[in-house]
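Quick one: examine the sequence and fold tokens given here and explain what the tokens say about the fold. Here goes:
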Amino acid sequence: MPSVSGDLVFLADIPLYEYEKPYLVLLPPSKDAALDPSVPRQNLQWEKRTINITDIREQQEDFRIDRCGFQVLQHASKVSSLTRFQDVSREDLQAYKRETAVLLGEKLGAVHVICYDFKVIVPMSFLLYFSVLTSVPAQLRINTRVDRQTLDLRDPLLADVTVKSGPEIIRTHLAIQDLERYAKPGYRFRIVNTWRILNPVAQDSPLALCDFRSVDPEDLIPADRVIPGIVGETYYLRYNDQQHWCWLENQTPEEPFMFLMYDTHPGNNARCSLKLHMRKVKVRIMANFFLKTVRISRSLIVGAQKTHHPVKASRQDQS
């Protein structure tokens, strides 16, 4: 399997985080201006390491979501307007969410699937974040080219969901009647993301994922992410020379990734995955589609059945 190398940005291993939790405050300019400018908006410090990233194209069967936390799917979307995102309608986006829910329900044996969030990402220009309630389309910059001297892997490494934030996300987005039905022993909750490129081939900013089997849990550092009205939590990653990073060379729209963010019953399987975007020399800016979903399936627990379930039906503890 060929590999590429580049400098990755990890959370620095410094004494500060022994007594102060990492955090990042993201506020709109109007709210940020009202705060004391002497109060730090973040305490994140980074260190750069050079690593190898392995192409898994010839060994995709060795990388399954329950083993390593991610998997390449073979699926052609029927929503053709996604490749011309400036023409996409709200109905098209809803159709894509339904299509993805069916696909992943089949792949993971789920009895209930909801798609609660999605993003369209155009690296090195801007991030478009859409809600199903907003009006689309939006205009993307097409055929823009950028020059790079070296492989650029400067995005900080993170996992969007932690042991703490996973249940909070599920309680927030699942209907009360579904929580009452499924938040009990015998059911397994998983938060799984999908990532599909919108260009014919992923040349600029392909996705790299870390094999969960190579991650020391002690290197997953919880960090607060503060936005108006919400204090969420993500993981940042500390460097460890045992980490194994992977990518899929020349990925196409018919080869979406699915990757695990949270699992209530992981057993010895993967619990989450870590991701970053890779950027290369002289390539077209690429748009890609992130879709976040909650999946519920029946779980077979071997041995004693715990009565405690990580996801409770009540929402009274939601901020």
About this structure: The radius of gyration is 20 Å. The first strand starts at residue 3 and ends at 11. The chain has a mean pLDDT of 75.
